[in-house]
Every structure is written in C-alpha cells, then in structure tokens.
C-alpha cells in the first residue's frame, strides 16, 4: 500500500451514494494520473457526483460534455493539448450507458483514429444516473426499471469490441481491487495512443444490496469468474492475480447472484445459461493464455 | 377510474389506452418514469406492444419512423438533450408524414447540466412540422395524449404531435387523474402510405428543386387543416368524456384590463396570481397558451399583455412574446422567468403584472430592465 | 390549504411518503398534490418532498416555503439541514424518533417509525420502510383519516404489514 500516493484529487464532499464503486475508483484513478490531468465526463453518475455549481469535489479540470460525445470531445481535446506541446493526461471517465450504447460511435472513431487518451468505463450494468434503466451492459436476467421481468438478452461484450480496434493497451478492473486498478492506470498512461480500462462497479441501489457490501460484491464477481481481471498489451493477454485463482477453481455462481435483489427470482434456466456463459468465458481466456486459439 | 398519478404516469396510462404496437425509447431525466411504467405494462401484458430499448434518442425516433411507416401506431418520449439529439429525425418524421406521438418533458439545456423545467427544448423544434401542445395538469397530460393520437392520425393531418409537460413541476407532481376507455375515439391505425410489398413505393428518394417545395407546402397545408381537426377532436372529447379544451385556457379574461400569458404549469399558477390581483382591484386575467403549433389566433385586442417566456431565443427575444407580437400586433411586457427550473411563484407573477412596462423585456432575477 | 414538507434521505421513501399522504387525503375527498424537489437524488443524500391538501383544486406548483407541518424521517439530517425553516408560527413538527429532540420549536410530535418498521420486519435492501407508518401518525394528528390511510396503503402496497405498521404508529404517537 505504500506505493499509492497520499494526495487526494477527489474531495470528500461528493454527492455519491453510500457504497458507490465509481467514486471509490475515481479516487484511485486520479492518484495514479496525478494533477496534470483533464477528465472528460459525459452524462453519467459522475456528472452529479462531482457536485453542483458553484461547488466541486474535483481538484483536476473536469470537462463535462453531452452523453454521446465523450470520446469525440476527448479526441479534440487531446489533439489540442498535444498541439500546444502539453503532455496532460486526457481521461474519459464514463458509465456503461455512455460507452456501450449512445457513446459507442464516438468510442470507435477515437480508437480507430489512434487518439492519445485513456478511456475508462465504470460499469454498473445500467443507466444509474437516471434511475437504473437497462443498458446494453446489463447482464442476462437482471431486473432493471425497464426490464422488470429480467433482461432477455446478454451483456454486450464491450471488451471484444474495443479489442477489435487493436489498442496498445486495454484492461479490466474492479472496484474491489483498487491497487490493481491503480497499477493498470499507471501503466496505461505510460503508453501513447488509445487505452481502455473497463471497471466493474457494483452499485447498491442498482444491484439492490446493502451499501456496506460493495467490496464483497466485487470480490464475488471476480471469485466466481463472472468478471475476469486481465490486461492486453498490444493484444497480448495476461490474466491478473485474483483471476488466476478464480479461473482454476471458480466459486459457485450462486454466491454472487444470491445477494443481489436485481437477480431475485431468477429462473433456473437463466441461471444455467449464465453459468454456461461464465464457464465458456473462462475456457476462452484459459485457452488463449495457454497459446491455443 | 379515478385515482392520483404523476404527470409521467398519466402519459404512460394514456399510451396504454391508445395501444401503440411499437414503442421505442431511451431514458433521460425527467422522462424516465414514462418509459419505466410502459415497460411494466408491456412485461405484465397489460399493454400488448413491442418495446424497443434503443441505444440513443436518434435511434428512438428512427425506430419510430420505421415502425410508423411499417403500419403500426408508435410512441416515444424524451426531454431536452434527448430531443435535441433526435433533431435530425424530428424533421424527418414530419417530412415523412408520420403520425408519431411523442411526450417531451420540458427541461433546460446544458452546459451546465440542469434537469428542471424550461421550454427552450421544445421551441428549438418549432420549425420542424410537428404539432405541439403544452399541458398544465396531470389530467390534461392524459387527455392531450389520447387526443394527440387521434389528431395525428387524422388523414387531413398525418403529422407527428409533441405533447409537452414541465419537467419535475408537472412530470413528477401527483394530482388527481380520471382514466377512460377511449373506445372508438381512437380508431384503428390506418396509414394510407404504409409500406406494402403488394403496392411497392420508394419512400423519400432524391427530390429535385422542381418538386421538393411542393412537399413542403403539403406539410403547411396540413398544419392549417390541423386547426380545424384539433377543434373537432377537442369538441368530441368534451362530448364523450366531459372535459373541454381549447387553444388556450382562459381564466377571468372576459373583463380583464391586463392578461398574463404563460405556458405549462406557470400558466396554472398564474390563475392564483390573478385572484390575488383581483382582490387588490387590478382587473387581471390569465391566458394559458396550450397549442403552439399550429399557432392559434389569440384575442388580446384592447388589453395590456404580460407574457412569461420560460425560454429564450438568443439574439432575438422570448419566443412566445415575439410570436404573439408578430401574430397580433400587441406589444407585450416580456418577462423571461423560470429558466432551468428557476422558481416562479404566484407572488412573483403578480409582481410582474403590478410592475409591467409594455414593450419591454425583463429577466427575472437579473436586476435591470433590458 | 394545508402544506406539509417532508425531510428524509434518498432511499428512505420520502418521495413515496408524499404520494401516500396525497392519496389518503384524496380518498378523504380532498384535493391533494405531492411533489418531490429533486436536488441530486442520491441514496443517503438529504431530499425534500412536499404535499398540499385543500378543499379547492390546487393550482400552485412552486415549493412550499411556509409549511404547516414539517416531517423529519431521518433526524440525522437536522445537523446539516434547517428542517424548521419557514415553519408557520403555529406549525407542527413530526419527528421519526423514539424520544423528544431538543431545539425543536413549534408543536413537536415524535414517534419511533424506525422501531415500528423493524418490529414488523418492514425492511427493503437494508432500509426500514418509514412511509407507511408515518401515514398512521398523520391519521392520529387528524390530517388524514385512518380508514383512508389504510386504503391508500393497500392501493400502493400489497404487504399487509404496512397497514399494521401504520396502525402501530397511530397508537404510539405522543406529543
């Protein structure tokens, strides 16, 4: 823990919910990035968490932008800063809705053009800021306010979409493993070009669990193999520590599901499908790591 | 059925009664309860409809265009930035002559992010060929949505209709609501130019300078005919369901020396201001403007007029005041108030009347007259 | 017109409390409106909601500045929010508390809504349900009738424990 700097760039006066993963992660992201950083924030929980005018909880510049436009705005901002000879970190900090749905066009364009920036998607698997409606990132079977019977389709595989753009660096992370996130952000920012980090962000009001269980939820996601922590440098895969053990012997999926109100009364067939998907995913990553593809 | 409901729930209930076959929508504060309630009705089977959870508002309107052209009644709802994000497709829907009904929960535009009531969002679409009505109560939100389907689908109109309600001030307020079974008040959907492989047509191809303007005139002609259709439909609604509506809702205007014109919930709160002013001996009246497109004829001759604009057109002026001025020749006292949900009470409205300066503009909260 | 302002934290059901009170008043044959005032609505952050009750139709949409009654569902808010601001000179206060609270001006009532909810096991996602028992307290204060309180609760919730909690609050309310 001595590697993590003491300086805070996200002050205590945020409007975050009790138990919020996103603001926990942002704290570590900013510690890794340091003060020479601009955050680009589309409509998402962070738009509100940062505080309401005339106050702010942020001590780095934050550029708020429209929902669909974060990566495009970051593209322009990054080009401008480099034109001025500045190395300032440009970091998009966006929710899943603004990344995988309405923001995907801009994301794809910025990556295809090789924009020098870091795109971080904190994924609470729903439109959190507007009250927990489904997004493309909502998993199969999850209840949201617009899928009261459970989402009938699977979670969109954002990571493979980003991978298809061959970025120099991409990674997954989870709010329950802040040191892992810190290291990944530091590594990402040391590499030029477009970088991507996808953070699983358990969310008490959205996933319907008590606010003090956020870290436990994140750990269960990783331990059950539902969320695999890994990095790709120039496409080459390396599985992160906590997931190595989980992939060898994943905890039963039920342990992750049972504590979440959004999966209450999950049909057994759906649970089976979810289990299959977790197993297939683990196998896919295991095969790739072993060199068989 | 007599109950209480929020403005948003009233819209969802009217949609359930109108039975659209396809609903495509994207969440945005403060519209979310509309789409959430509709999702529940579809999931429970109370509403048989295909609900498409699209990935953006532009796609919401594009999907509605496809569905409506495909021969099915459609509905969507949005607000503010969502409305603006679909702007291109808003133009398209009217140009394609599709009777889409959309609820727009009026909300201010960023930056900075502001989720409270303002009318600039709807007015920014005023040139698109959509009909626009602004409601002031939960009951009216319900009634106007039912009538919107009927008006839009009338063969003399065949234009989309936007039902506007104030964000938070009406969308989230709970008032009494009587729901009805519309029966044949809303006849089955019939679009004369629906897609039909047995009668193949190309829709919206390249159209040159010698033909295009004719289609634009067609839209305007239907807009003009819509005035008569609106009047007919509102009259029939009154006969069948007992509640009357018109282009404006007038309160104590008959012998008024000064009339306050406002839209949405400010137009209702103005009635309370009128009562206070009357107690002081000022013969005030309030005229809540409901229909904005087509813009109605207004009877304001011989009175002083105070227009409250919950909007602004930069470099020009308050949209409602200038619309009234250009259509009637009256020079109103234009108060710019309520932007971004700025609180405006009946006391404030009464002050606007007491301190009126005809022909001038005043930004409430900003100290000078400009 | 009778104006009520409700203070709570996001996630405690303060917004629904306003709707419930309005529904009960409506079933009593009155006109009633309920509205939330949304600041940033975040779980745990202070929120305010309003109710107006009148014999005549209500045409006011602006915030309540001079309430007749202030309800505080979470008294820890009182450290950061001036819950009594604007309270009418003869106004009343209803606190969710097992005991009286010092510094509460006006006519203060208190009832342990949290304790009542926990006793009925009325808990969702870790939070006790306060909006149904508070309706019972308001019935005791004469703002709505107890039968209408029961009707309103049954219209909005299927779990009968909510009615029991309201009845318990009705019995327990002390001045």
Automatic annotation (TrEMBL), chain A:
<dbReference type="GO" id="GO:0030976">
    <property type="term" value="F:thiamine pyrophosphate binding"/>
</dbReference>
<dbReference type="InterPro" id="IPR011766">
    <property type="entry name" value="TPP_enzyme_TPP-bd"/>
</dbReference>
<feature type="compositionally biased region" description="Low complexity">
    <location>
        <begin position="141"/>
        <end position="152"/>
    </location>
</feature>
<dbReference type="GO" id="GO:0016491">
    <property type="term" value="F:oxidoreductase activity"/>
</dbReference>
<dbReference type="InterPro" id="IPR029061">
    <property type="entry name" value="THDP-binding"/>
</dbReference>
<keyword id="KW-0560">Oxidoreductase</keyword>
<protein>
    <submittedName>
        <fullName>Pyruvate ferredoxin oxidoreductase beta subunit</fullName>
    </submittedName>
</protein>
<feature type="domain" description="Thiamine pyrophosphate enzyme TPP-binding">
    <location>
        <begin position="64"/>
        <end position="199"/>
    </location>
</feature>
<dbReference type="Pfam" id="PF02775">
    <property type="entry name" value="TPP_enzyme_C"/>
</dbReference>
<keyword id="KW-0670">Pyruvate</keyword>
<comment type="subunit">
    <text>Heterotetramer of one alpha, one beta, one delta and one gamma chain.</text>
</comment>
<dbReference type="InterPro" id="IPR051479">
    <property type="entry name" value="PorB-like"/>
</dbReference>
<dbReference type="GO" id="GO:0006082">
    <property type="term" value="P:organic acid metabolic process"/>
</dbReference>
<feature type="region of interest" description="Disordered">
    <location>
        <begin position="133"/>
        <end position="155"/>
    </location>
</feature>
<dbReference type="GO" id="GO:0044272">
    <property type="term" value="P:sulfur compound biosynthetic process"/>
</dbReference>
UniProtKB/TrEMBL annotation, chain C:
<dbReference type="GO" id="GO:0019164">
    <property type="term" value="F:pyruvate synthase activity"/>
</dbReference>
<dbReference type="InterPro" id="IPR019752">
    <property type="entry name" value="Pyrv/ketoisovalerate_OxRed_cat"/>
</dbReference>
<protein>
    <recommendedName>
        <fullName>pyruvate synthase</fullName>
        <ecNumber>1.2.7.1</ecNumber>
    </recommendedName>
</protein>
<keyword id="KW-0670">Pyruvate</keyword>
<feature type="domain" description="Pyruvate/ketoisovalerate oxidoreductase catalytic">
    <location>
        <begin position="10"/>
        <end position="171"/>
    </location>
</feature>
<dbReference type="Pfam" id="PF01558">
    <property type="entry name" value="POR"/>
</dbReference>
<keyword id="KW-0560">Oxidoreductase</keyword>
<dbReference type="InterPro" id="IPR002869">
    <property type="entry name" value="Pyrv_flavodox_OxRed_cen"/>
</dbReference>
<dbReference type="InterPro" id="IPR051626">
    <property type="entry name" value="Oxidoreductase_gamma_subunit"/>
</dbReference>
<dbReference type="InterPro" id="IPR011894">
    <property type="entry name" value="PorC_KorC"/>
</dbReference>
């Amino acid at each position: 823990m001595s590697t993590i700097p003491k300086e805070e760039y996200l002050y205590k006066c945020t409007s975050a919910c009790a138990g919020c993963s996103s603001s926990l992660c942002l704290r570590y992201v900013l510690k890794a990035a340091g003060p020479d950083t601009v955050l680009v924030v589309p409509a998402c929980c962070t738009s509100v968490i940062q505080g309401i005018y005339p106050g702010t909880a942020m001590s780095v510049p934050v550029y708020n932008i429209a929902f669909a436009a974060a990566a495009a705005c970051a593209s322009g901002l990054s080009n401008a800063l480099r034109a001025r000879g500045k190395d300032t970190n440009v970091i998009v900090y966006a929710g899943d809705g603004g990344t995988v749905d309405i923001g995907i066009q801009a994301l794809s364009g910025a990556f295809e053009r090789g924009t020098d920036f870091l795109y971080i998607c904190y994924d609470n698997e729903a439109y959190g800021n507007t009250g927990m409606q489904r997004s493309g990132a909502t998993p199969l079977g999850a209840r949201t306010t617009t899928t009261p019977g459970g989402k009938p389709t699977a979670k969109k595989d954002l990571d493979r979409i980003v991978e298809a753009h061959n970025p120099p660096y991409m990674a997954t992370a989870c709010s329950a493993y802040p040191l892992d996130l810190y290291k990944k952000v530091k590594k990402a920012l040391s590499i030029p070009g477009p970088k991507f980090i996808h953070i699983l962000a358990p969310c008490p009001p959205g996933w319907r669990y008590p606010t003090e269980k956020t870290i436990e939820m994140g750990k269960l996601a990783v331990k059950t193999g539902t969320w695999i922590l890994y990095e790709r440098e120039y496409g080459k895969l390396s599985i992160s520590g906590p997931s190595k053990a989980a992939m060898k012997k994943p905890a039963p999926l039920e342990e992750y599901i049972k504590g979440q109100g959004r999966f209450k009364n999950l049909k057994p067939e759906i649970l089976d499908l979810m289990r299959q998907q977790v197993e297939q995913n683990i196998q896919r990553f295991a095969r790739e790591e072993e060199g068989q593809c | 059925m007599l109950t209480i409901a929020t403005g948003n729930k009233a819209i969802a209930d009217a949609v359930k009664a109108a039975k659209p076959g396809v609903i495509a929508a994207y969440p945005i504060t403060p519209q979310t309860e509309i789409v959430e309630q509709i999702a529940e009705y579809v999931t429970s089977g109370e509403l048989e409809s295909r609900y498409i959870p699209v990935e953006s508002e532009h796609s919401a309107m594009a999907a509605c265009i496809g569905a409506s052209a495909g021969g099915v009644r459609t509905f969507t709802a949005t607000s503010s930035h969502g409305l603006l994000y679909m702007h291109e497709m808003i133009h398209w829907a009217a140009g394609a002559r599709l009777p889409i009904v959309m609820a727009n929960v009026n909300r201010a535009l960023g930056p900075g992010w502001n989720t409270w009531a303002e009318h600039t969002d709807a007015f920014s679409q005023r040139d698109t060929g959509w009909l626009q009505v602004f409601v002031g109560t939960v009951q009216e939100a319900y009634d106007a949505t039912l009538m919107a389907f009927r008006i839009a689908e009338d063969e003399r109109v065949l234009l989309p209709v936007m039902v506007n309600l104030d964000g938070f001030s009406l969308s989230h307020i709970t008032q009494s609501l009587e729901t009805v079974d519309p029966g044949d008040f809303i006849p089955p959907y019939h679009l004369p130019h629906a897609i039909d492989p047995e009668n193949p047509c190309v829709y919206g191809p390249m159209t040159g300078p010698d033909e295009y303007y004719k289609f634009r005139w067609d839209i305007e002609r239907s807009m003009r005919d819509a005035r008569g259709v609106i009047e007919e439909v509102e009259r029939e609604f009154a006969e069948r369901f007992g509640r009357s509506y018109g282009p404006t809702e007038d309160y104590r205007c008959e012998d008024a020396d000064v009339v306050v014109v406002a839209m949405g919930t400010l137009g209702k709160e103005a009635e309370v201001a009128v009562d206070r002013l009357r107690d002081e001996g000022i013969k005030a009246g309030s005229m809540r403007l409901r229909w904005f497109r087509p813009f109605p004829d207004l009877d304001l001759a011989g009175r002083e007029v105070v227009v409250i604009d919950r909007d602004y057109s930069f470099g020009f002026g308050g949209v409602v005041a200038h619309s009234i001025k250009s259509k009637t020749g009256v020079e109103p006292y234009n108060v710019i108030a309520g932007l971004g949900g700025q609180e405006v009470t009946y006391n404030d409205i009464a002050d606007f009347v007491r301190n009126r300066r005809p022909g001038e503009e005043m930004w409430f909260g900003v100290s000078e007259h400009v | 017109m009778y104006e009520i302002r409700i203070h709570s934290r996001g996630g405690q059901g303060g917004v629904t409390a306003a709707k419930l009170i309005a529904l009960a008043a409506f079933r009593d044959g009155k006109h009633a409106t309920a509205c939330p005032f949304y600041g940033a609505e975040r779980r745990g952050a202070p929120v305010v909601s309003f109710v107006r009750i009148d014999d005549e139709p209500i045409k006011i949409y602006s915030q309540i500045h001079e309430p007749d009654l202030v309800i505080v569902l979470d008294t820890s808010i009182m450290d950061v929010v001036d819950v009594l601001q604007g309270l009418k000179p003869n106004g009343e206060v209803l606190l969710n508390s097992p005991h009286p609270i010092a510094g509460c001006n006006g006519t203060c009532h208190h009832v342990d809504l949290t304790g009542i909810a926990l006793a009925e096991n009325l808990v969702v996602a870790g939070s006790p349900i306060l909006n149904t028992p508070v309706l019972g307290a308001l019935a005791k204060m004469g703002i709505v009738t107890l039968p209408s309180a029961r009707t309103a609760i049954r219209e909005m919730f299927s779990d009968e424990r909510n009615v029991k909690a309201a009845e318990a609050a009705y019995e327990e309310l002390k001045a």
